Amino acid sequence: MDFNKAFSNNINKKDVEQITCYVGNNQKRFSELMKYVLGNDTQKARLAAWPMSYVVIDYQSLIRPYLKACVDKLYEKNVHPAIKRNILRFLQEIDIPAKLHAKTLNICFKIISATDEPIACKAFALSILENLTKIYPELQNELHLHIMQEMEKPSAAFASRAKKILKRLNK
Fold first, then answer.
1. Which of 41, 39, 101, 93 is nearest to 62 (CA)?
2. Residue 20 contacts by C-beta under 8 Å, 6 or more apart in sequence?
3. What is the largest CA-CA distance in the chain?
């Protein structure tokens, strides 16, 4: 498959499924895909990030060599929301290595508190934080506080995810 050609135009769900199937559990093909996700061409990176997230959810081991770079990408200024959203999508589904916990916690708290972050990014960040509070239960109160502050702002999607997380935290 020619990724350069595939990411030259917008892609749809069917394209994502084809790319995801093509990459499969193949490290070489995944590495080629990651060159686009982490590359400097924002248009191609945002398109490549979508199938990348689904490949990672299915084959978590493939992301290991790129995980730090993905978390670092979340810290970059002006990163396209689609890239951020798809990185956060897979981070909520995987076991994040301990050496990346602090960076991941920090950026997720920043995301849920930011006024300019898309709701999907905030929702995924909430799920990541919830997952990490299972490892660091002492952070449950801080997460609870952040959720309560953010629920004062109108967003049905955030409120829905937040209420479910609060319910689980309070058990």
1. 93
2. 51, 54, 55, 58
3. 50
41-91 per-position pLDDT tens digit: 999 999 999 999 999 999 999 999 999 999 999 999 999 999 999 999 999
Token pair 């398109």 is at which residue? 47
The answer to whether the beta carbons of residues 127 and 94 sit under 8 Å apart is no
Task: Give the span between the Cα atoms of 149 and 143, in whole angstroms.
Answer: 10
DSSP 94-142: S---GGGHHHHHHHHHHHHH-SSS-HHHHHHHHHHHHHHHTT-GGGHHH
Among 94, 95, 124, which Cα is nearest to 107's? Answer: 124
Exposure b/e, 85-102, CB count within 10 A at least 16 = b? bbbbbbbbbbebeeeeee
